[in-house]
Write a structure and sequence with these properties.
Radius of gyration: 22 Å
CATH architecture of the largest domain: Alpha Horseshoe
Helix content: over 70%
Shape: globular
Number of domains: 2
Largest sheet: none
Length: 310
């Protein structure tokens, strides 16, 4: 029997580790993933992505077992082998959060959102870190952050297609599968047209003051075309109207990931930050907006108003 154990391939060891993980046997899963890593490292080059997955899996087992320091080490290894791996970013973020290294956790959550702006766990993590850092460092907490890595467009496109709904379940705060998008491929012409029709229906509802119904239309539109900036900014306007300020921030975040200098997204996010009592974030957004449009009267007026409160 021991001989049979030794002869198992790295794939079999990985599968056995996965089964142990599913049944909550995290120590045994860690051992099996370690054996799989040793077996795979004996192989020839070209297995970097597979090795990255094994390190990421072992990191998940360490995280579940409360061994956050080892989780971070394995995520670092995984990300060296396979840069911008979403699961590794989310697992490392959760470990950093548990270790109260909130700045680093914030960076990882924000980096994951560059790859897939629909990961609810990353949005929630970002919000938690924002609150924790504001409490720890005051309104100027952003000035103390390390730089957030810029994810190249080519990498975003490649990795977003691989990101699945289960990515959100890998952190310490599992989400429902339905909260992330599983298909990040470019929308078809048919989807773009359908999305446009639904967006226009939403616009018509806004004119009637029916903001909640408009939100539903915009949400349907984004399912067909998740790359339409105007739909996010329009839905953000509706969220502001119904006082769902966190949702408004989220939509503006998504719009700005597509178009970093979008004036409507910057202004509406500033408005939402103001309502959420995050004055510094509001000021930062308005200053960014004024770099694009220095004479924007609405932004200048709001900036003057919030600076009185500082």
């Amino acid at each position: 029997m021991p001989q049979k154990q030794k002869s198992r391939s790295w794939v079999e060891l990985k599968q056995a580790g996965n089964e142990c993980f599913k049944t909550g046997q995290y120590g045994e899963a860690t051992s099996l993933y370690s054996q799989a890593i040793k077996e795979l490292e004996k192989k020839s080059k070209g297995k970097q992505e597979d090795l990255a997955v094994l390190y990421s899996n072992r990191a998940a087992a360490y995280l579940k077992d409360g061994n956050c320091a080892e989780c971070v080490k394995d995520c670092n290894m995984s990300l060296e082998l396979f840069p911008f791996n979403v699961k590794s970013l989310l697992r490392r973020a959760a470990a950093y959060e548990a270790l109260e290294r909130y700045r680093l956790a914030y960076i990882d959550y924000k980096t994951a959102l560059q790859i897939d702006c629909n990961i609810a766990a990353a949005h929630d993590g970002t919000n938690r870190m924002t609150k924790a850092l504001t409490e720890a460092d005051g309104p100027s907490w952003r000035e103390k952050l390390p730089p957030i890595p810029a994810v190249p467009l080519s990498v975003r496109e490649k990795l977003a297609q691989k990101t699945t709904a289960t990515a959100a379940q890998t952190t310490a705060t599992p989400q429902q599968n339905g909260t992330t998008k599983t298909d990040k491929a470019a929308p078809s012409d048919k989807d773009i047209k359908k999305g446009q029709v639904l967006k226009e229906e939403g616009n018509a509802l806004v004119k009637k003051g029916e903001h909640k119904k408009a939100i539903e239309k915009y949400s349907q539109s984004l399912k067909h075309n998740p790359a339409e900036v105007a739909t996010y900014t329009n839905r953000a306007l509706c969220y502001l109207s119904v006082k769902q300020y966190t949702d408004a921030v989220r939509d503006c975040d998504e719009a700005l990931m597509i178009d970093s200098s979008n004036v409507k997204a910057l202004y509406r996010r500033a408005q939402a930050h103001k309502e959420l009592k995050d004055v510094q974030a509001c000021v930062d957004d308005l200053n960014d907006l004024l770099k694009v449009e220095p004479k924007n009267t609405a932004a200048l007026k709001l900036l003057q108003e919030v600076q009185k409160k500082k």
